[in-house]
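TICKET: design request
STATUS: open
ATTACHED STRUCTURE:
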């Protein structure tokens, strides 16, 4: 049944898709992957998806997912500098929120996609703080983590073969 598809069938199908440019490009990628997988598994001799079939223009451009324009974001960040410190306390700890903390939080939300609803549901008792020296890098942390895994494996020992 797969061998009944022709390049013309694929062209008609792809041209008939009523999707946005990114969704259409993703659909083309999925179609290519499916038929290439069929070729790799010897279900087809050759893929019917033509190599000259290209995703629509603009499909690879980056989308600005931030809900604010650059000017609005700049005004928000400037407002953080005018924010007075706020003391907080809960059953676990206490501290002070400053404008710098607020800025860090906003940048984290913008660049990671963190949502307010995620933060509202966050439980502080799930948060584990780790000391990282100022002169340290993420590589040091990765090395320590791999060392920890090695130590666990050494303590556990090699499994006995039967």
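STATUS: resolved
RESOLUTION: sequence designed for all positions
ATTACHED SEQUENCE:
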């Amino acid at each position: 049944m797969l061998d009944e598809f022709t390049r013309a069938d694929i062209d008609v199908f792809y041209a008939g898709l009523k999707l946005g440019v990114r969704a259409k490009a993703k659909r083309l990628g999925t179609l290519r992957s499916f038929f290439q997988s069929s070729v790799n598994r010897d279900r087809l001799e050759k893929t019917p998806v033509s190599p000259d079939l290209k995703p629509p223009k603009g499909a690879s451009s980056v989308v600005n997912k931030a809900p604010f324009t650059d000017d609005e974001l700049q005004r928000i960040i400037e407002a953080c500098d005018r924010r007075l410190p706020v003391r907080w306390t809960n059953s676990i700890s206490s501290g002070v929120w400053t404008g710098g903390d607020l800025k860090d939080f906003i940048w984290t939300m913008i660049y990671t996609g963190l949502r307010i609803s995620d933060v509202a549901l966050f439980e502080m008792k799930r948060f584990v703080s780790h000391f990282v020296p100022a002169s340290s890098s993420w590589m040091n942390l990765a090395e320590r983590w791999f060392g920890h895994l090695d130590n666990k494996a050494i303590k556990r020992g090699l499994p006995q073969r039967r």
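CLOSING REMARK: The longest helix spans residues 21-40. The chain has two domains: 1-63, 70-162.
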